[in-house]
Each structure stands twice: as C-alpha cells, then as structure tokens.
Design brief:
Elements: E1 10-14, H1 17-31, E2 37-42, H2 58-66, H3 70-76, E3 80-82, E4 84-88, E5 96-100, H4 113-122, H5 134-141, E6 161-163, H6 166-178, E7 183-186, E8 189-194, E9 200-205, E10 210-212, E11 215-218, H7 225-230, E12 235-237, E13 246-253, E14 262-267, E15 270-276, E16 280-287, H8 294-304, E17 314-317, E18 321-323, E19 327-328, E20 331-333, E21 339-340, H9 348-361, H10 370-396, H11 404-410, H12 416-428, H13 441-450, H14 470-486, H15 491-498
Parallel strand pairs: 1-2, 1-11, 2-7, 4-14, 11-20
Antiparallel strand pairs: 3-6, 4-5, 8-9, 9-10, 12-18, 13-16, 13-17, 14-15, 15-16, 18-21, 19-20
C-alpha cells in the first residue's frame, strides 16, 4: 500500500446556487464529518441564474441518496410533479406530442411494445403510440399519483420527476449542508493563487481574507472563474448545431391549477417554456438574437405567458457547449461553469448531480491522479454529448420551413453521433443502448415518432408472434391504461392532499 498518499483535508466550493449547494449537500452526507472539511464561498451580491426548475426522474435519486423526505422537500420548494414534456409546434405548427417518463405498456412475449405497435401499424392499425404510455395519458387527463403507489396496475409503468423553485432549493440544501458541518463564507473572490505546478492553492477575497484548500469546485456560473479564467481550459462551442444563444425569463401567477408536465412551445425564432409550480410558474423564451431582439422576445413571451408577472424579467445570454475538460488538476467545474445545454430536456440539475456522483466515485487524494481525472472527463463528456445530440434532434428533424430560423435548423449538418443513431432507428426502430445512458428507448421512440421520423420496418423477431389478435390486444392495453388513469385524482388535488406548500412571500397580503 502506498504510504505516501495524501488525503484531501479541505475542499472549497466557489459559488453557491444550485450547483454549489448540491455539491455541498452530497459531500457533507457522504463524508459524514470524517473526511475532508468543506467550505463554500458565495456572495449575496452576485446573482444566480436560478431558472433550472424542471427536472428528470434521476433527480429524485439524489433526494433519496441524501435521505431527504420527498414530501417535505416539495412543500419547501413550492414543488409540483412532472410526468414528461409536452412539445407544441415542433414538427409543424399545430402538431403536438409528449415525451413521457416511464415505459410503454408491458412487454409482449419479451418484446418491446413499441415493436409490436410498429408491426400492427404496418398492417393498418391506427392507435396512437402514446396511448400505451401511462405518463402521457396522465398528462392528457391532468391526473396524478405516485406510480409505485399503484402496483399491479398500468399506472405503475409511469415515472415522474418534479418542478421546483431553484432558489428555494438552494436555501433548503444550504440548511441541510450547514447542519452537517459545511462552513459558508460570505465573500467575493478577488484573486486566485496557484502553485508552480498549476494547482490552485487558495483564493483571496475582496476584503483580504485568504482561503486555502486541497481541492476546489468551481460553481461560479458562466464566469468560470477557476476552470476557465485561471486554469485556461477551453470551451467546445456547439452553437453551429444549437443556434439559440439568449433567453428571457419571467415568473408569473398561475391563472389555472398547475399541470403535471413541462411545456416546450416552439416559436418563430426558438421556443418558450412553462414550468408550473404550486403557486406560480416559471416561463421563458429561448431564442436566437440573429433573428429576434430582446424586446421582441419579451413581448412574445408576455403575449402568451398566461398570468401576471410577479418579478421583473431578466435576460440570460449563453453559448451552448462544454469545457474541453470539466476537471483540471485540482479544480472541478459544475453547472454553468462546466457547460450549458439549453433547457429543452430539463437536464441542467441532473448534470450537476451526475458530476458530483462521478466525482465521489473517483474521489482523489491531494495529488489528483491523472487517471482518475481522465476517466471522469471521459464519462462526463459522454453524458454532455448524449444530451447535446438528444436536444439537437428536436431541431434537426423539424419539418417547419415557415422562416429562416427553422429552415436553418432542418438543413443543418448533424453531428455524426446523432446522424448514425437516427439512421439506425430508421432501419427497424432499433435504439442504440448503452450501460449508463440517460435517455432510454422510450425517449428516442417518443421524440422521433413525435417529430415524424419513422422506421422503415419493424424488427424481424416480431414475426414469430401471430398477428391475429394483436390489434385487439393493443386496444385492450390502451383501454386498461385509460381507465386506470381516469380513477386517479387531479394533479392539483394530489398536491393539495399530500404536499401543499406555504404561501410564497409575493402572495402575502399587503
């Protein structure tokens, strides 16, 4: 055994917000006060982006890992439930589809129900694919229950995530972390001190205080103070595939009860989101400033926001892409400091959690062995590129040609990695799977079918199943899902009965 090993004694997180406090919470829980000391430096004078309010199902694994009660958490963060994403006008104006969480129905003799549906469709069956996704039917009917509370029913095939108030979540995780020994220091970093070997040795705050540590986590947002400005790690620019480079964001009251889904509504020069929380919604317009101005984008957003603004809108400029290396020497970048993929598939918070999950797997000593760094960067790059391709797919497969923005999207040269996945799917619906992929078959099948990309045939093995009775079986399965969902409570009623949040500050009487 190597007796010269130098364990980490102190880890310093620079920056708070979602990234900083997720990192602090996970380390404080896993270290149990017996490993490295954790200090987080942030300033109330530096704003956070705070629009990462829609999640995907693995986010709930993080809560479980932290031992956080989901019901209590949702009360604290004004949360609601999410069964998937409703896409409007992406294929063509007036054409909508759902990307659901969970799976389609049940396997038929060990076969994917999607393949059974493909064969039936080839024989004239006209039942919609999403009729076999319990999450989609729940969205359409505005119903909800926790799928694991309905075992042995069709509803159990659904999965869910949550909508949250990002700032409230950061405050919640701050309390969680400080209760487990994390030290929070108020201050703004003025100078970064490095060693001759390029490692960061410490940071100097504007008031002159110096904080030294063995390892640093850069959560400074787009500024990328450590990984970019200090370490000089470059940036892979993906704007040739993802042309949107700005967003205007706003919070509005809820004129109607919140639905159990995120809305992604394609516009003339980008797309608008709506993320419904219990007592307000986050809305925004992601756009390309070569086609529309900030003022025009804001006017467009306000015209369809539904609800009264409760804060002033803010503009977020961005460049889609990621750092050439997310971990360099003794600096790890998380969140916006490491990269940004527009929020179309709600993956920002997941990438923060994923980044910390892999960091804990490859936890180094004070010397930061290059083999650990290389493997971390390889795995995280794979995740970023998978999400990149999945998001590009929504743009590249559009059939819209009503303006220059969408014509540019539909004629783009796709990354080879995405192009090969779509070509494989078009053969017979085969989806390239991996050991640890984020988007499973149901996601690719739902989005590609929704965008009008269809396989030329079904998988040959399906021919071993007699076709006689197959349409009737599919109809029965769809009917069983629909009836099971009809008996569920409304989403708003479920929230009221199980995790009603206290009234927010802005809703208090004057």
């Amino acid at each position: 055994m190597d007796q010269s090993r130098r364990p980490l004694k102190k880890i310093c997180i620079i920056g708070g917000g979602s990234a900083g406090w997720i990192a602090a919470a996970l380390m404080s829980e896993h270290f149990k006060g017996k490993l490295a000391e954790i200090e987080l430096v942030e300033s109330d004078d530096i704003g956070i982006v705070g629009v990462g309010e829609s999640t995907i199902p693995p986010f709930l694994q993080m809560l479980t890992r932290l031992g956080i009660n989901e019901q209590d958490f949702l009360k604290e963060v004004q949360g609601s439930f999410k069964l998937g994403i409703l896409f409007k006008d992406w294929k063509l104006k007036g054409d909508d589809y759902i990307h659901p969480f969970g799976r389609f129905g049940v396997p038929v003799e060990m076969d994917d129900l999607y393949q059974v549906w493909l064969r039936a469709r080839a024989q004239g069956y006209d039942g919609p694919l999403q009729a076999f996704a319990a999450a989609s039917v729940m969205i359409e009917q505005d119903r909800f229950t926790l799928p694991f509370k309905a075992p042995r029913t069709p509803v159990a095939s659904a999965a869910y995530a949550v909508h949250i108030d990002a700032r409230r979540m950061a405050r919640y995780l701050r309390r969680f972390s400080e209760a487990r020994g994390v030290t929070r220091t108020e201050g703004i970093v003025d100078q970064v001190v490095t060693r001759p070997d390029g490692f960061v040795e410490g940071v100097v705050l504007k008031d002159g205080r110096r904080i030294d540590a063995d390892f640093f986590i850069d959560c400074t947002g787009f500024r990328a103070l450590l990984i970019g400005k200090t370490m000089g790690v470059g940036y892979h620019d993906w704007s040739s595939w993802l042309p949107c480079n700005r967003a205007v964001a706003l919070q509005v009251t809820n004129p109607t009860p919140p639905g159990p889904y995120t809305l992604a509504h394609a516009q003339d020069h980008g797309w608008c989101w709506r993320i419904p929380l219990q007592q307000r919604s986050g809305v925004g317009y992601v756009f390309c400033d070569r086609h529309v101005s900030d003022d025009e984008a804001l006017a467009n957003l306000l015209a369809q926001a539904e609800g009264e603004p409760i804060v002033d809108p803010w503009i977020i400029p961005f460049k889609t892409g990621m750092r050439e290396r997310l971990w360099e020497k003794n600096v790890l970048s998380l969140g916006l400091a490491g990269g940004f993929i527009e929020p179309l598939e709600s993956t920002a918070l997941h990438l923060i959690y994923r980044g910390m999950d892999f960091f804990l797997r490859f936890l180094p000593d004070a010397d930061c062995d290059p083999a650990l760094i290389a493997e971390y960067n390889r795995r995280m790059t794979q995740d970023y590129e998978e999400i990149r391709d999945f998001v590009i797919m929504h743009y590249a497969t559009t059939q819209r040609d009503d303006n220059d923005f969408w014509r540019q999207c539909r004629t783009m040269e796709m990354p080879e990695s995405l192009k090969s996945k779509i070509e494989l799917f078009q053969v017979n619906g085969t989806v390239r799977e991996g050991v640890d992929l984020m988007f499973r078959s149901v996601s690719w099948q739902s989005v590609l079918e929704g965008m009008g990309v269809h396989p030329r045939a079904y998988h040959p093995l399906i021919d071993r199943i007699p076709f006689e009775g197959m349409p009737a079986y599919l109809d029965q399965a769809a009917t069983a899902i629909r009836r099971a969902v009809e008996g569920l409570p409304r989403h708003a009623d479920f929230l009221k009965d199980h995790c009603t949040a206290p009234s927010p500050d802005w809703a208090a009487p004057v």
